[in-house]
Write a structure and sequence with these properties.
single chain; alpha/beta; Rossmann fold; six-stranded parallel β-sheet; elongated
């Protein structure tokens, strides 16, 4: 059994969560894209989702670039003050999870740092989604942070895991990966040679149960126990 020298975490729904009591902490219900840009909310969401991969891997360098593409494809005008307002609103929305950190997660990171374990972070994200990271209480615990939009590829691309291990100066077999399981990230980590664990403490059981083949951690402290077992 390879002794573990590093743990790499996912960010959203692993270290922080955008939800409380099954609902988003910031409601989007009042946003009317029909009156704002000329697309219904459902049409906009579909087209936003269709651009998911390019948004995550930096294919669209900014929020404005995504919106410009959507509007151009639908032959709709780009109104600068409307897009700027939507951009600022999205920044504020995405900052919220960084301000309300689970103390069990903080305690876990403290324990791991006392063991001199290297800590890494890989997040599939866009620029505006992680504006809150620098001021987040979690930031100081991490040795390396990789945001997909900055490096040009996203989970489950094996290259992003390899990059994290390279920056941490650790062999993948000496590394654990922990994430809620979105974006097929656990399989990607395993393909890269890591032991992968599902962080299920934020994930509803009906979603978590759909992911099989990976050890399931119901609480943050269970990860620390798994780490000790690997030593």
């Amino acid at each position: 059994m390879a002794q573990k020298e590093a743990i790499i975490f996912d960010l959203f729904e692993t270290l922080i969560t955008e939800f409380a009591n099954g609902r988003r902490k910031v409601s989007r219900a009042s946003r009317d894209y029909g009156s704002l840009i000329g697309l219904s909310n459902s049409e906009f969401q579909q087209q936003w989702n269709e651009r998911q991969e390019m948004r995550m891997n930096g294919g669209y360098p900014t929020y404005r670039a995504v919106m410009m593409d959507i509007l151009e494809k639908n032959k709709l005008p780009y109104v600068e003050h409307v897009i700027e307002a939507l951009y600022q609103e999205r920044i504020l929305e995405k900052r919220v999870p960084f301000m309300d950190i689970n103390t069990d997660v903080i305690d876990l990171l403290k324990l791991l740092k006392r063991k001199s374990i290297k800590l890494g972070l890989i997040s599939n994200c866009t620029e505006e989604e992680v504006r809150g990271w620098a001021e987040c209480p979690l930031a100081g615990y991490f040795d390396e942070v990789i945001f997909s939009y900055q490096v040009g590829y996203a989970k489950p691309d094996i290259a992003i895991y390899q990059l994290a291990c390279s920056r941490l100066e650790v062999n993948p077999k000496h590394c654990m990966f922990v994430g809620d399981g979105g974006s097929n990230e656990l399989a990607g980590a395993r393909s890269a040679g890591m032991d992968a664990y599902q962080a299920a403490w934020y994930v509803p059981d009906f979603i978590s149960s759909k992911i099989s083949g990976f050890p399931r951690l119901a609480e943050p402290n269970e990860l620390y126990k798994q780490f000790l077992d690997k030593q």
